[in-house]
Amino acid sequence: MAEGHSYESMQREYMKVFGALMGLSVLTVLAAMLPLHGPIGITLGLLIAAVKTLMVMYIFMHLKFDHPYLRIMVIVPLFLLCIMIFAFKVLGI
Q1: Per-residue model confidence as pLDDT tens digits over 36-62
Q2: DSSP 14-45
Q3: Own/partner pairs for 69-76, CB < 8 Å, 24+ apart?
């Protein structure tokens, strides 16, 4: 556990993230029901997935307590992966 953080505060933070992930999961299901095809639907799905991924990495993988440069080295490849998936899906490569 990180220094200066009580069990109760960390538990509250985990529950907030859990609630946000559940809300984003519901949003993902609702977005999948929309008749969005092509780049708009793909972009919406990738955005929701990227936000959920960043939340998990930031809290549960403890990037919150790591050096900012390490966070950048994790977030930039995730961003590039999203761009690559988007390009493959839209361009049909």
Answers
A1: 776 777 778 888 888 898 888 888 888
A2: HHHHHHHHHHHHHHHHHHHHS---THHHHHHH
A3: none
Cα(33)–Cα(62) distance, rounded to whole angstroms?
33
Whole-prediction pTM: 0.69
Alpha-carbon torsion angle 68, 70, 74, 80, nearest 10:
70
Say yes or no to pLDDT of 22 above 90: yes
Residue type, 56: V
Residue 51 tokens read as: 């936000």
Distance in angstroms (rounded) separating the CA atoms of residues 55 and 72:
14
Contacts 24+ apart (CB under 8 A), 82-87: 82/46, 82/50, 85/46, 86/39, 86/42, 86/43, 86/46
Q: Where are the domains of the chain?
A: 7-91
